[in-house]
Amino acid sequence: MTALDEDGRPVGFTATSLASLAAVPPLATFNMALTSSSWPTIDATRRVAINMLGQDDYLVARIMAGPNEQRFDGDHWEAGPGGLPLIVGATAWMVGEVVATTPVANNVMIAVQIDQGALGDPDEPLLYHERSFRALGAEL
Amino acid sequence: MTALDEDGRPVGFTATSLASLAAVPPLATFNMALTSSSWPTIDATRRVAINMLGQDDYLVARIMAGPNEQRFDGDHWEAGPGGLPLIVGATAWMVGEVVATTPVANNVMIAVQIDQGALGDPDEPLLYHERSFRALGAEL
Question: What is the ipTM, given to two decimal places?
Fold first, then answer.
């Protein structure tokens, strides 16, 4: 999840809570802490980019879950629509407007209506389970 | 996701949108359609059971995603706290109160505060990807 703050600086984090809410209109949800370094920007600008990461992107997933002042050090991102940071090599990106924010205790659930997006490099899915990154397994 | 309607009948569905919102207090979120057969009950009773399914439960996952009038035909569930339906063999169950509901278009995002739960039978994780059930793969 990435956004652009009002001073033009990129912010973002690796989200594990992304879920589909609807297909028509295209809506997605995610959760974050109100103490997250990205929340003031998302709350103020109401615009986010959702970057879908595949197995080849797992080092980027680690960087974006690391110290927040280092998450955009490197060439693993570029400016997309409206200057929103897009992760280079993501399997897909979607850009949209925050249409609902519901604070609950010290956290917030967020709904985004997607208005633009594209597929990127095909890749195998990247999973996160018990603090490690994993591949998708066999069909049952 | 299961609930008990005001006439004492079980309702529920297989959710793929379950996400953690917070650890303290324990909060989880999920999404559903306002047209879902389970929504009127969840909206009225504000109590749900979250049944975590493992690989051994994948036939139950299919049943609970099938025709809603057949989802509780069988011995794959039993009454739990407050009569809430619990799936037999689930890897864990959690029961809680719906503390926030935010409708967006024809859908709703829901936050649940967990007040009771227990671990069940250990099992491998059950994944759902591109309309099929999958195992968890290797660590990257």
Answer: 0.93
